[in-house]
Amino acid sequence: MAEPHGETAMRERHLSAHEDATDGIEFSAWIGGDHYRTEEGVETRDPAIDEPILAVPRCDARDVDAAVEAAWDAFDREWKSTTPRERSGVMFEWIDVLTDHVEELALLECLDTGKPMAQAHGEVEGAIDTLEYYASVCRAQRAEQIPAGEDLHLYTKHEPYGVVGQIVPWNFPMWAAAWKLGPALAAGNATVLKPSTDSPLTTIRIAQLSEGILPDGVLNVVTGKGSEAGGAITEHEEIRKVSFTGSTAVGAGVMHAAADRVAPVTLELGGKSPFVVFPDADLDRVVDAVADGIFYSTGEICDAFSRALVHEDILEEFTDRFVEKAESYVLGDPLDEETTMGPLTSQSQFDTVTEYIETGNGEAELLCGGGRPDDPKLEDGWYVEPTVFGDVKNSDTIAQEEIFGPVQTIIPFSSYEEAIEIANDTRYGLAAGIGTESTSLVHNAAADIDAGLIYVNEYGPILPEAPYGGFKESGAGKDLGLEALDHYRKTKSVYVNLSEPSV
């Protein structure tokens, strides 16, 4: 019998990988420390071959009610009385188990999102590193004594909210979950977390791997549609704080729902991030940095450098080098080591990106890409070539709206003042890049650009020690860093009168 080849071989390889990755594992919701099932399910699909991997439960408001009840029971029964040292120990025990399952989790992430294996592996390790950070700083939590007077003992204490709701996106499923879970658990909260319908598998799996370590009900995962399970989380009266990562449009709805019951929110939303390339930039470094910032993870990144602002003196050289770099990416099977770009994660995102490319063709000059790769074995997957547009005006649709795909716009500028004006001419303010060899230019531009994250001559890394979040319509509050820990704690001030008692 002849060996399969081309698209048939890739399909069979992925179907076999589906079986290997899910064999013996029930991917249900996780409530109260146990599997939780519903009558209806929702498929998660492999974007490289457009085939279902499996179906996960379609949770609704009643199921969220069950998760919230389990979370409060766990919090009141046990978790709220744990010390930071005890919580740290529990988290490290869970981390040890996750570390033993890195290869399994990376394969699930690769299949569920379409990320090349190297990226999936790195992001799983990044998620574990984030949890390690919060397990470490958990023990460093302390209150403050305020010297307000000799007859007054004034101090603060930090308390968890109790039960928090968390909603994570489809582009970085496990890593984003760790960004939420790490500070929430370290602060002493129980949580109800909803992963995306498009990529729920690693989040389900890490919750299962907490069995027998985290008290039952401390970590609950509800799966299903955002309009159902997600909406129920944002509106639930017994969820005391909500953290959401996703689109600005949905984030506005989350904020509105939380405002109706005066619940605090953390929102990490969209972006249209500029990378400003000044005339003295080292293009050997900066071209790679800008490419990493728009083509990593197939451009499905909220802080993507989707606007390259390039000084007119080096515009031609930068453009030639950048197009060459874009054309060097290897689109292919995410399971292959040589693949450097996989498919988009969903059919709907593929449709969105291709519509924006059509719009761009009517606004600017297409320099490369713009279509599906010319490879028969990839024709069933949601692949889009690395795409670069030149002669772009910052007012163009493709320069103002978040595309969330591998689409770069190159916009010229002639002066520092014009560069800053263009960089800030967007409703977003998540990230920005600066390409220059001038120290003073770095600090001036970093101060003048209205964004929450500034990268200099590179893209990344993202470290758990530093707060992550943006300005304007890119969100409110921060993930990561000690600041995120504060977002999951209430501060109480205690006044103790020490005056002499009357006899």
Describe this structure in words.
The mean pLDDT is 96. The chain has 503 residues and is an alpha/beta fold. β7 (163-167), α6 (173-186) and β8 (190-194) form a beta-alpha-beta unit. It is globular. It has helices at 6-22, 61-77, 84-100, 102-113, 117-137, 173-186, 201-208, 226-235, 248-259, 283-295, 315-326, 347-361, 397-400, 416-424, 439-448, 481-487; strands spanning 29-31, 34-36, 41-46, 51-57, 145-149, 152-160, 163-167, 190-194, 219-221, 241-245, 265-268, 274-277, 307-311, 365-368, 387-390, 407-413, 428-429, 431-435, 453-456, 471-472, 475-476, 489-497. 39% of the residues lie in helices and 20% in strands. The strands form 6 sheets. It has a 7-stranded mixed sheet, sandwiched between helices. A 6-stranded mixed sheet has the order 9-8-7-10-11-21, sandwiched between helices. The longest helix is centred in the N-terminal third of the chain and has 21 residues, at 117-137. It is built from 16 helices and 22 strands. α1 (6-22) packs across α4 (102-113) and α10 crosses α11 (315-326). The protein has 2 domains: 12-269 and 477-490, Aldehyde Dehydrogenase, Chain A, domain 1 (3-Layer(aba) Sandwich); 274-463, Aldehyde Dehydrogenase, Chain A, domain 2, CATH 3.40.309. It is an enzyme of class 1 (oxidoreductase). The active site is at residue 268. InterPro entries: Ald_DH/histidinol_DH, Ald_DH_C, Ald_DH_CS_GLU, Ald_DH_N, Aldehyde_DH_dom.
